[in-house]
Amino acid sequence: MAHQTLTARQYMVLGLVSVCAPLGDSCLSRGMASLPAISITHPVSLIAAVFTPWIGLGIALLIGFFASYLTALSFADLTYVLPASAFGNVIIELLSRFWLHETISLERWFGVLLITVGVGFVAQGPATTERVEINASGMIEGQEAQLQ
Amino acid sequence: MTLPASEIHTGFWAAAAMITAVVVTSTIGEVLIAAAMKSIGDLDEIRTHSGLKGAIRAVLTCPLFFAGVSFLAISFFSLLFALNHLNLSLAGPATASLTLVTNAIAGKFFLKENVDRRRWTAAILVCIGVYFLAH
Fold first, then answer.
1. SS3 labels along chain B
2. What ipTM is given for this predicted complex?
3. Cβ pair A114:B125 closer than 8 A
4. Which residues from chain B sit within 8 angstroms of residue A117, using beta carbons?
5. Do B129 and A108 touch (CB under 8 A)?
6. Chain A hits for B114, Cβ within 8 Å
7. Most CB within 10 Å of its CB: which of A50, A87, A139, B128?
């Protein structure tokens, strides 16, 4: 059975899935934190929040995430893409530690290690499940040609 | 005077029901979207032949895609409802990690994906990792 490998472009799409979601969430979080508290009785304030730079950037990044997620699902299995997208949690931790200089507990570093090992495991295997085509005569595609 | 929702004690079964609702709707949504994208084919190839408009048209004319997005929307509002009654430290990691496992099961049985030992190990490692990150 052929071992299907991804192209550099497809790895880039998976990278975008991992990067865009945490960056988008971080931008939304930063944007909402800088706004005064929004009351549930004034939902219109939420619409105004969409037009602030951080929230706008966050939404743009999340649209980028969804587009790259759909593209990834078109060439790889769901069970391959999901662990890759979970790698975004690791990126958030690394950004928190080295960009925001936050303290990361030992438990969190252990979590980072487990996710990294998990993603490494799945990345070494095939990205898609190979479908075996069985034709009308009950033979596997290609087998018939070999017999003739 | 009425208490805020987060102050009201939520029982075990109510919490389990809320988390289950998020996990189930999210899994159905992800599986439907994955099935839609598989039926459409590689978007990069479609874009090469028909351009970006062709790729967008291929996605937007697929009924499975809209069914998936609808379930993801229900999942999002279920999560908001759960967060209104439960702590983020419970709802966040519980839904994120359980969804990974249920997606692996659904991928095997509904999408007929080859979920081998490697993928099961990855799903469980990532699931435990997400749990540790959230604590």
1. CCCCHHHCCCCHHHHHHHHHHHHHHHHHHHHHHHHHHHHHCCHHHHHHHHHHHHHHHHHHCCHHHHHHHHHHHHHHHHHHHHHHHCCHHHHHHHHHHHHHHHHHHHHHHCCCCCCCHHHHHHHHHHHHHHHHHCC
2. 0.76
3. yes
4. 125
5. no
6. 77, 126, 129-130
7. A87
